[in-house]
Specification:
55% of the residues lie in helices and 17% in strands. The chain has nine helices and five strands. Strands 1-5-4-3-2 form a five-stranded antiparallel β-sheet.
């Protein structure tokens, strides 16, 4: 299951218009760092300085990212998000991304823009907790088979399932470690006075930052 909603989100977030006189002074590495800080940490100040957007606009994009990840979480674990569960899951991912680790290195000028080197340390939450998550899923399925949820609506069952998963993951998150850094590159592409962060590169970074398992993105 791929995060297809990323396409629109990244196009909205990662477009930077520059006057021609400012392009030679443009700090591409700092700009990409500001995009990551805004997307993952909800820290918008530097990104706003680059783009001129408002705090409300930046926060709305950040929340849309949390919502996208929350919908992916529901699809991955096989339930439907309701208004109640999606806010619960968004709060969880807000905490998850506070544990994210990335380092933005140097930028190289290319014929089409810039190539920025980034090191990402994958958070082990879903990988190291894989057995516990699987046991959690199986236990809930067994309860359903035993009739524990007879008479409840599907929305009520999904709410209990979501809460059951998040209770475990929130406990695991407190001690979750990061793996060794993975070297990635992010393309910043220039077109008609604009710079756009390559969406495929950011999707690749996203998959590395918080991996679910090796088959999650097939």
């Amino acid at each position: 299951m791929k995060k297809s909603r990323w396409v629109c989100l990244l196009l909205a977030l990662c477009l930077l218009l520059l006057p021609s006189c400012a392009q030679e002074e443009f700090d591409a590495a700092s700009y990409v760092h500001s995009v990551l800080d805004s997307l993952y940490c909800g820290e918008h100040e530097q990104y706003r300085e680059f783009t001129g957007i408002t705090e409300e606009e930046a926060e709305a994009a950040y929340r849309e990212h949390l919502k996208t990840e929350s919908l992916y979480f529901a699809g991955y674990f096989g339930f439907e998000q309701s208004n109640e569960t999606i806010y619960r899951t968004m709060a969880f991912y807000r905490e998850v991304y506070q544990h994210s680790r990335y380092e933005v290195g140097e930028a190289e000028r290319t014929d089409t823009g810039f190539l920025i080197h980034v090191e990402v340390s994958p958070l082990e939450l879903f990988v190291s907790g894989g057995e516990g998550i699987e046991n959690r899923v199986l236990a809930f399925s067994q309860r359903a088979a035993d009739g524990a949820f007879d008479g409840k609506t599907q929305e009520e069952i999904d709410r209990e399932y979501c809460d059951f998963l998040l209770q475990f993951l929130e406990g695991e998150l407190k001690d979750a470690a990061c793996q060794e850094p993975v070297a990635l590159t992010v393309r910043l592409e220039e077109s008609q006075g604009s710079y756009v962060v390559n969406q495929e590169d950011l999707q690749a970074l996203d998959r590395v930052l918080v991996p679910y398992d090796t088959s999650a993105e097939e």
